[in-house]
From TrEMBL:
Keywords: Lyase. This is Mandelate racemase/muconate lactonizing enzyme family protein. One of its GO terms (biological process) is amino acid catabolic process. One of its GO terms (molecular function) is lyase activity. Signal peptide: none annotated. Residues 145-241 form the Mandelate racemase/muconate lactonizing enzyme C-terminal domain. Residues 342-377 are annotated as: Disordered. The keyword Signal does not apply. SUPFAM superfamilies: Enolase C-terminal domain-like, Enolase N-terminal domain-like. Transmembrane segments: none annotated. It comes from the Archaea. InterPro entries: DgoD-like (IPR034593), Enolase-like_C_sf (IPR036849), Enolase-like_N (IPR029017), Enolase_C-like (IPR029065), Mandel_Rmase/mucon_lact_enz_CS (IPR018110), Mandelate_racemase_C (IPR013342), Mandelate_racemase_N_dom (IPR013341).
Amino acid sequence: MEITDLEVIPLSWSLPEGEGMGDSRGFGRTRATSLVRLETDDGTVGWGEAFAPGSVVEATVDELFRDRVLGMDPFDVESLADRSYTDPYHFGGSVFVQSALSGIDVACWDVIGKTVGRPVHRLLGGEECHTLTPYASTMYFTAEEQPIAEPIERAVAEGFTAAKIKIGSGFEADVERVRTARKLLGEDAALMVDMNGNYRPRQAIKTARAIEEYDVAWIEEPVPPENESGYREVKNRIDTPIAAGEAHYGRFAFKRLVDDRLVDVVQPNLGRCGGLSEARLIADMATTENVAVRPHVWNSAVGVAAAVQFAASVSPYPHTRNVPEPMMLEFDRSENPLRSEILETPFDPTGGTLDVPQEPGLGISVDESAVERYRDD
Ligand SMILES: [Mg+2]
């Protein structure tokens, strides 16, 4: 079997003028990403997502990957991750190399699954898994101030039992947002907060201590992703678990997070961490050291599908089965047709569970006419 076609499909979509939304660092209107479509000599099509703008993914694929992927057997997928660090070795862990690799790698796994008739989570060694627990990623900062309660009320009405909210814009606002979310979600729901690396350690610690009474499951990116000493400082001085990974790329960056005990939860994004091959290595490193794995997902529906299959494959071992922790999967609740419109059957996270597709490969059917609507090249 060999790969005969490799296409990068840039996608983008923008909110109307004045309706920017985002995090403590600022607002944006445009969602841009890239799909990777592979085809093999027997006509099998595989899909992946490189979670980066199309122009850089196209250039990176052309420069580093196209020649080696065309003619390759997709079953040799794991050799691509190794070679991303060696050929040439200067670019290995960079975000755009790992993003381009992610798209190709996930598309290869989709082809492999379709060829052997198994969903990807079983190929990665996971037990049979039918559902995950989705958490609503919500309460974004908005360009025009909106009532903070409304998105949480909506998540509760939709049946979510877990949610992650944006904080990090100042101490008073942090406490008010967390207090509001906890009140509306109820005592039993899991509540996570995301500072998007907008604080110095001292600021993050002050907020972390003040929101401890609201039983926060994790604080995401309290300080900038590069600030390893800052992570160490925060982690040593608060009791709430810390999570990071959406701005870490490749196995070596995650190894530092795990080895140096900088976080309690690693969050690889399947469109940026290097793909399923690299994510499996990351999960093996993390679970070996009893660090939790919860993928970051802010992708198109193809990236969501990759994250679902990956999350379904991760073993809870060695965490004790007497204190069960559900495998939670981030589900962005902001408007984004790249997530909600490009599959024949979109994922439905409402009602408290998310079905894991059992069909071969990623288990999705991409609606190519919908993809064309958002194509941006
Ligand atoms: Mg985040």
